[in-house]
C-alpha cells in the first residue's frame, strides 16, 4: 500500500495535494491559489535562501521548466501575433496562399507549375500551420490558443509549451499528408491548437481538477471536426494525439529522469511525423 505524503511544512498532516511548481506536498493551511492548481508559500514568494539553497528551491513549473520573469504568456502572445501577421499577408498577397498551404502534389494554375511537399517544398509543413484565409477560421483558432495557451504556458514553461505547439502542428500536418488526397490542400493552426486541447486534458487530470468542462470542450470540437464541411479532420486528430503523448511525458515523467522522458517523447513524435512524411513523399514521387 502506498504511503500518503505529508505536508513538507507540517510533517504530521497528510495531504494529496502538491505544489504545481516544485511538486512538494502541501496541506490546506499552506495552499496558495494559483491560476492552475495550488502553490506552496516559498514558490509564491519566488524562492528563498542564497547560494545552493536558492538554486535548489528555484520555482519551477509542474513540468520542471524554469519560471522566468516578465510576461508569463510571452510565447502565447508571439504565436497569436505570428498567425495574425500571416493572415494579413494572405489577404494582401495574391500568390501567398498558393505558395504556403499544405499539399501533397498537384498542378497549381495560379502558379503555373506543380507544387507540394512531394515536389521538395517541405517548408509547407510549417508555413501552413500559421496560414488562415477566413476571419472565422483564425478567430476560432486564436480564441482557443489564448484560452488554452495561458494556463499551459504557465504550467509547462516557455520552451516546453512552444515545442508542444509546433510538434502537435507538425503531427497534424503529417497525418493530413498521409491520409488526404494528394491534391487536397490544408491550412490553419488547428492541428497545433488541438494539441493544446489534448495537453489541457492531461494537465487538468494531473492536477486532480474537474475534468468535465475540458472533456465537454473536447467533445464539442470533435463534433465540429467530423460534421463541419471542409475541415481537415486528419490535422485535428493528429495534433490531439501528439498533444496527449507529449504532455503526458512532460507532466507525469519521474523526476529523476524527467528530462530524458520529456525530450524522448518529443523526439519520438518528431521522428514518427517525419517518417510519415517521407513515406508519403516516396509514394507520390
Structure description:
This protein has a two-stranded antiparallel sheet. About 4% of the residues have low confidence. The radius of gyration is 21 Å and the shape is elongated. α7 runs antiparallel to α10. Helix content is 57%, strand content 4%. With 285 residues, the chain is mainly alpha-helical. The chain folds into two domains: 59 residues, no CATH class; 211 residues, Rhomboid-like fold (Up-down Bundle).
Question: Can you lay out the helices and strands and say which pair or pack?
Answer:
Layout: E1 32-33, E2 38-39, H1 41-44, H2 51-56, H3 74-92, H4 96-100, E3 106-108, E4 113-115, H5 124-127, H6 135-156, H7 158-179, H8 190-206, H9 212-227, H10 233-252, H11 258-284
Antiparallel strand pairs: 1-2, 3-4
Protein name: Rhomboid family intramembrane serine protease
Membrane topology: Multi-pass membrane protein
Keywords: Hydrolase, Membrane, Protease, Transmembrane, Transmembrane helix
Amino acid at each position: 500500500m502506498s504511503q500518503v505524503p505529508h505536508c513538507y511544512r507540517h510533517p504530521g498532516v497528510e495531504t494529496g495535494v502538491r505544489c504545481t511548481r516544485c511538486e512538494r506536498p502541501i496541506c490546506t493551511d499552506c495552499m496558495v491559489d494559483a491560476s492552475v492548481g495550488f502553490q506552496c508559500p516559498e514558490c509564491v514568494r519566488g524562492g528563498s535562501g542564497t547560494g545552493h539553497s536558492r538554486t535548489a528551491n528555484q520555482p519551477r513549473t509542474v513540468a520542471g521548466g524554469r519560471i522566468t520573469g516578465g510576461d508569463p504568456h510571452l510565447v502565447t502572445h508571439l504565436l497569436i501575433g505570428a498567425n495574425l501577421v500571416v493572415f494579413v499577408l494572405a489577404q494582401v498577397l495574391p500568390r501567398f496562399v498558393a505558395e504556403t498551404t499544405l499539399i501533397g502534389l498537384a498542378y497549381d494554375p495560379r502558379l503555373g507549375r506543380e507544387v507540394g511537399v512531394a515536389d521538395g517544398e517541405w517548408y509547407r509543413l510549417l508555413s501552413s500551420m500559421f496560414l488562415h484565409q477566413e476571419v472565422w477560421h483564425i478567430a476560432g483558432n486564436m480564441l482557443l490558443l489564448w484560452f488554452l495557451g495561458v494556463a499551459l504556458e504557465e504550467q509547462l514553461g516557455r520552451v516546453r509549451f512552444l515545442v508542444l505547439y509546433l510538434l502537435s502542428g507538425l503531427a497534424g500536418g503529417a497525418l493530413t499528408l498521409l491520409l488526404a488526397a494528394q491534391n487536397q490542400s490544408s491550412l490553419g493552426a488547428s492541428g497545433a491548437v488541438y494539441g493544446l486541447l489534448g495537453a489541457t486534458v492531461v494537465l487538468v487530470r494531473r492536477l486532480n481538477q474537474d475534468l468535465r468542462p475540458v472533456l465537454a470542450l473536447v467533445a464539442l470540437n470533435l463534433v465540429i471536426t467530423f460534421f463541419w464541411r471542409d475541415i481537415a479532420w486528419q490535422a485535428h486528430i493528429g495534433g490531439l494525439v501528439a498533444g496527449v503523448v507529449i504532455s503526458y511525458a512532460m507532466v507525469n515523467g519521474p523526476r529523476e529522469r524527467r528530462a530524458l522522458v520529456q525530450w524522448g517523447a518529443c523526439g519520438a513524435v518528431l521522428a514518427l511525423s517525419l517518417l510519415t512524411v517521407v513515406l508519403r513523399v516516396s509514394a507520390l514521387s
